[in-house]
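Reply to thread "Modeling small-molecule complexes from scratch"

Following up on the discussion above, here's a worked example others can learn from. I took a protein sequence and the SMILES for NAX and predicted the complex. Inputs first:
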Amino acid sequence: MADELLTVAEMGRADRAAMAAGVPGTVLMERAGAAVAAAALARWSPRPVAVLCGPGNNGGDGFVAARLLAERGWPVRLALLGEVGALRGDAAWAASGWTAAPERPVERLETGVLDGAGLVIDALFGAGLSRPLTGPAADLVMEVGRRGLPVLAVDVPSGVRGDDGAVLGCAPRADLTVTFHRRKPAHVLLPGRLLCGEVVLADIGIPDGVVEAIAPRTWENGPRLWGARYPWPRPEGHKYSRGHALVSGGAVMTGAARLAARAALRAGAGLVTIAVPPETVTLYALSLPSAIVLPAPDGAAFEALLDDPRRNAVLLGPGAGAGEALATRVLAALARDRSGVLDADVFTSFAGGLEPLALRLHDRWVLTPHDGEFDRLFGPLPGSRLDRARAAARACGAVVLLKGADTVVAHPDGRATVTTNAPPDLATAGSGDVLAGLIVGLLAQGMDGFDAACAGAWLHGEAGSTVGPGLIAEDLPEALPAVLRRLKAGADA
Ligand SMILES: NC(=O)C1=CN([C@@H]2O[C@H](COP(=O)(O)OP(=O)(O)OC[C@H]3O[C@@H](n4cnc5c(N)ncnc54)[C@H](O)[C@@H]3O)[C@@H](O)[C@H]2O)[C@@H](O)CC1
Ligand SMILES: Nc1ncnc2c1ncn2[C@@H]1O[C@H](COP(=O)(O)OP(=O)(O)O)[C@@H](O)[C@H]1O
Ligand SMILES: [K+]
């Protein structure tokens, strides 16, 4: 499946470009409807179908699918929101193909159309959804849910907004969603992703050059985006050529930096130094034999460690304790030519204002807030998670990774990815510390900020899926070798 995600506006441009290149709209619609019918035939045994059509081109796709399933002998009932006479353009053409047979009526959109149905094809609204579902459309969607009927959604489940996956009013929970040419953000962002079921991407004959011309800025995260630049160890390499991460460890919440350091080592950093309060050296050293544990009693001692240019990537925040001392360490790291990750308590330490950070940050730094930390640092920004992460990255000049079940990574230049492989088992204490450690480990090996954030988020999700139920944060670094072995086998192929 292609990784690009097209906004509704970009998809509109793709449709128009295809038509300008000589592919008529009716041909695109015929192929879209045929893909829907084919998906129904592939997934379900022959059964009575209720096709719910809306007043636009999404409804047009429904008319085509209805005709093709009826031609295959499936009992099909079709109901339309509005009047056939009010349909325009390609949708009117598609409706005429259905009504050409006198035994195929167009029913009013009322719940009775569901009687006897073993499958619902939801072709009410797709890209054109412009306001919340109300009236008969909402009634039908609610009734489909009450009856527990299987649903095949055309493009998106009706009520789900294509650009952000938000539900306007209500939307059905589909078993299968057939979308066209490229997926939209709604197929990967929550709650939309959870309502789509399985997503099938259908080729409707829009030439590939069209996507290149549109140059989309959003992708589903995966190794195809960054795998070619993954920093695998080289035969002629040695530990000093694999980077040296410096992790700042706290006095009380010592687990956070230990988890992060272990993840940085597993991600392949040649060396990891943890700078810790002197009274905790033994504790850190005993639990992490492969890390270098050095005492840093104060800010000056930490700066002395930073001054060694071989320590090329820095992690600040996990378990650090919010306040002036942490803020000073962050500004000291940013004053030097380093890359790094800012996480956890850093966001509280700079909650008063972004300016001191924004003045010094650049795109070899990655900020990894969850939603609460994000709002603390950037304020309550409007829009989808994609919009908000992009605006934050632009505002601070660094890569922003907004954590969650649909983690977004955004670069200040507007590129963004959505990560879809993270299981809910990752919602456990310390799992974010492991993510921060993975990213700093990759930065230490020379990956750029965007690649390191994307690769880190993806590896984190894969490690989480490998462990599955019962996962605790300690398991994640240990799951990494198997994940990396699989990644390497794919990358080498
Ligand atoms: N040539 C094309 O443009 C193609 C379009 N395709 C299909 O066309 C769809 C987009 O078609 P449209 O742009 O016509 O949009 P839709 O069919 O999604 O809906 C547009 C219509 O619904 C109305 N509407 C929006 N929200 C409403 C609400 N909550 N309650 C009542 N009415 C509402 C709008 O005023 C408009 O009349 C895609 O999702 C896809 O399924 C496919 O056939 C592929 C080719
Ligand atoms: N429901 C979920 N599904 C998938 N991943 C999740 C979910 N909830 C949280 N996560 C992931 O778990 C990690 C939690 O990080 P964080 O909130 O910083 O926890 P901690 O500070 O305890 O380490 C993040 O990577 C986040 O994306
Ligand atoms: K739909």
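What I'd highlight from this example: Residues 58, 122-126, 153-156, 158 surround potassium ion (ligand 3) (CB under 6 Å). DSSP finds 19 helices and 17 strands in the chain. Questions welcome below.
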